[in-house]
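From the methods appendix. Each design record in this collection lists the tokenized structure first, followed by the designed amino acid sequence. Records were kept in a plain field format so they could be parsed without special tools. The example shown here is representative of the layout used throughout.

RECORD:
FOLD TOKENS (162 positions):
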């Protein structure tokens, strides 16, 4: 399958789910998807297109919490340019919740736990959403990568990150 056909296929298949489609370069495409469509879009990219899940990244934009799921597609077809497709979902900052992708592919397990720790995202259906990075004494509801983070431990010296 060529790059052009693959992107056309995604646009047609998810026409009602895509909010924005940004074809940045021959090797990079960003697709903003409705949060409720995340599982079906990610499942299609991972299973049907046989993409590799690389990682996910999250950011607090103050307007919302964004997650980008990064997938790489590498085909041996000479007409196909290997590329990265990033699925973007924007979540309500006051209640950042989305479905977990861990039941679809195990690679999402730890990164979702990390995003839960540092940004407070609730991944519904995650098999074990317990702390991964933060110590046990870290208070619930305090997320170190949120823009409104306030230091909770007055004795802490955090000159090299959290």
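DESIGN:
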């Amino acid at each position: 399958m060529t790059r052009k056909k693959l992107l056309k296929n995604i646009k047609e298949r998810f026409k009602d789910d895509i909010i924005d489609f940004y074809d940045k370069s021959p090797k990079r495409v960003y697709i903003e998807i409705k949060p409720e469509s995340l599982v079906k879009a990610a499942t299609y990219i991972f299973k049907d297109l046989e993409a590799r899940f690389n990682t996910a990244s999250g950011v607090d934009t103050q307007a919302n919490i964004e997650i980008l799921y990064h997938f790489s597609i590498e085909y041996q077809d000479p007409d196909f340019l290997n590329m990265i497709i990033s699925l973007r979902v924007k979540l309500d900052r006051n209640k950042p919740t989305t479905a977990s992708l861990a039941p679809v592919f195990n690679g999402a397990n730890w990164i979702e736990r990390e995003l839960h720790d540092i940004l407070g995202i609730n991944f519904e259906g995650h098999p074990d959403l317990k702390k991964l990075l933060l110590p046990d004494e870290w208070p619930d509801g305090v997320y170190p990568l949120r823009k409104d983070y306030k230091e909770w431990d007055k004795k802490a010296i955090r000159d090299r990150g959290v």
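APPENDIX NOTE: The chain has three helices and seven strands.
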